[in-house]
Amino acid sequence: MQAKYFEERERALLGERYAEYYAAPSEEAARGVTVNRLRCTPEEFARLAGLALRPLPFCAEGFAVEEPDFKPGRHPYHHGGAFYSQEPSASAPAALLDVQPGMKVLDMCAAPGGKSSQLAAALQGQGLLVSNEYNAGRAEILRSNLERMGVANAVVLNSDTTALVKAFPAFFDRILVDAPCSGEGMFRKEPQALAQHNEGLVRQCAAIGREILDNAAALLAPGGVLVYSTCTFAPEEDEGQIGDFLARHPEFTLVDTGASFGSPGEANRCGEHPFDVSLVRRIWPFQGGEGHFMAKLVKASEGEGARPFKPEKPAKPCKEWLEFAGKYFPELADRPLLKAGELLLLPPETPLPPHKLRVMRCGVAAGTVQKNRFVPAHHLFTAFGHTCTNQERLTLDDERTAAWLRGEEIEARTAENGWCCVLVDGFSLGAGKVSGGKVKNHYPKALRNLK
Predict the structure, then answer these.
(1) Could you tell me which residue ranges the SAM-dependent MTase RsmB/NOP-type domain spans (predicted)?
(2) Domain range holding 419?
(3) Would the pTM of this model clear 0.90, i.e. be above it?
(4) For residue 276, which of 54, 80, 203, 416 sits 20 to 30 Å off, Cα-Cα?
(5) What CATH number has the domain bearing residue 406?
(6) Does 12 fall in a domain?
(7) Residue 231 is a catalytic residue
(8) Is residue 180 left, alpha or beta, with left meaning phi > 0 and alpha meaning psi from -120 to 50?
(9) Which one is catalytic: 231, 388, 420, 421?
(10) Annotated binding site for S-adenosyl-L-methionine: which residue ranges?
(11) Is 400 among the domain residues?
């Protein structure tokens, strides 16, 4: 650690513990993967992936990959959405929300999508996930990652959190606020975070986090649960933030996270509003992750709930879609459609109230009608490819798998003529079209392993 402000602050707060807590590690930062339960169980992944894995304590789906030359983005299972590559301790906050199928869940600061994919997996396709990201470029990355992970019941928004409150007051059962922060837990992984760090940045991030938390309070339904997290150690963004929030919001109660990993919070970081710091959780660099802070809050069950609303009317029946779905996706043929320009969408079964926010994706992009024919979208196959009636089934050691991910045409062995879903060990790699014993490659060029 070299940032003068950071070191002076942490030495004053930790005393003799500083050397232990921030000792130079003897090894590189751990590379973690979080298994996507929409695709498989952690046990199945460990058996099939062909990787040296070590279970992590931060969530049941987390593993450290103990292979120095591991390139997650090139692994076929990454393309198939079976795992998300993320810093190990970053997998902890989403698991604390106790999301159950059928709930309405909001990830307020969701890009690049690792935590949102965990929340989606917990919902198991039931209920609604709203994943919001203020930065437009990062919102596009979020959309792409949720598509790769096969998420079918998400609405991806690109909005300010204040606008969310106006659109969806008291609507959500669970909210995750992984707040924009000063990134002190990223110093080892991202040297730029250390280079740009200063006291002013900490204060700025604390102010942003305060606003987002207040908006989260208004968005949460009575009796709902809110988890707040950061990847920093700064008191103003962690214990101090929670103490101030509780002072402003007496309708909230701080509860135990239930986590056994890491360490309790620090009383000398609470500032003007002390509380029982044993209820919050910290992960320090020496505890197997780069660093995280987490707090779990419950809103009082009394209070006004969400306003009633009329869902958006579905699009008129589309004969081209009905013909296509009846042949390849019969389970989807009766699902109502929405229309966004020329794109047909399969929206989540749990609707959002009407709003005027910028929507990056609502449910699943099914496809478009071109020259009186239905042309399917990539997302249709990542979300529902396992149900497609025509499949080209590959395995991890099949040479055709690498060829497919390079964008090449491959031999058809299990699929018949027409559209098909190409899968590796059951994980969808998108759409192909079979003719003359070959599968024409429709895997998006931007996603291919070209190097």
Answers:
(1) 21-300
(2) 391-451
(3) yes
(4) 203
(5) 3.10.450.720
(6) no
(7) yes
(8) beta
(9) 231
(10) 109-115, 133, 160, 178
(11) yes
